[in-house]
Amino acid sequence: xxxxxxxxxxxxxxxxxxxxxxxxxxxxxxxxxxxxxxxxxxxxxxxxxxxxxxxxxxxxxxxxxxxxxxxxxxxxxxxxxxxxxxxxxxxxxxxxxxxxxxxxxxxxxxxxxxxxxxxxxxxxxxxxxxxxxxxxxxxxxxxxxxxxxxxxxxxxxxxxxxxxxxxxxxxxxxxxxxxxxxxxxxxxxxxxxxxxxxxxxxxxxxxxxxxxxxxxxxxxxxxxxxxxxxxxxxxxxxxxxxxxxxxxxxxxxxxxxxxxxxxxxxxxxxxxxxxxxxxxxxxxxxxxxxxxxxxxxxxxxxxxxxxxxxxxxxxxxxxxxxxxxxxxxxxxxxxxxxxxxxxxxxxxxxxxxxxxxxxxxxxxxxxxxxxxxxxxxxxxxxxxx
Length: 385
Description:
alpha+beta, Rossmann fold, Immunoglobulin-like, 14 strands
């Protein structure tokens, strides 16, 4: 019976691995046409086992062809003979396989993981060349690690026991990693299964600042303590204060419109045409606008004087309209400003300081007093404290 060949690979000692690490024996891979590449891939696998979390190299250094020959397996070895290999090496977790050249310039490794009678096969095709003959090259070690996780279904998992301390010790919360939910905490206790290796967990508890912690997970498990800090209660929105400010602001806009209207009225009353028409009559003759609306041009109805009564009547109508509007503006503006000022001065705030402020402002009274005459306009804000 002829078997494929495997050169002597690097001698390896068993690596202790992390606590509870799954120990796996790597039988030196065989090949008929890529002997050096098979030896390099064997070394890369052992490097991968040493550096990967949750696993360890069993370190016995068995050669597949020698064990298969001793176990009485055929060449090529059938998968059904794997249990005989386990009996021969007295170990129930091992990886074996073959490497062969494939065109145009590739290598294909067929790898089998035996785990207590269960078999899983993975085929990896990669470039031939100098890298494929160097078991320490990063490229070949990456190929080996990818194949290892494919065979094992990922890094072995471990249970992380999470304990919450501090003021949140009896609270419920959620655990996240990388922004994704991975578990929950109930009354300050939780557990989550994670692949072996380093992890950063975030705990979110209502009413507390989120907190994170780093943990190194092994198949034997790990523990993590987290102590969230309680958030300061959010300050309630002081609607009375903001409502008062808004009312004062809107009120001042209306007051401004009233002042603008008053100034417009004053300008109209000082209009040259209006003044000339008014001066045609003695001051004792009554309302200028009433005479203009009657169409009277002068006390004597002198036909030689300029006809301006209609223009003056139009000015009077415009002034009357603006005077009505200004009192609406002043009324609304005054009410809003006064009401807003009362809201501001009597604001109780949102806490103990607000209660003190309320006592101090219990007697506050605010009043807005607009004054408008044909020749004078003013606005007064009167407060009683």
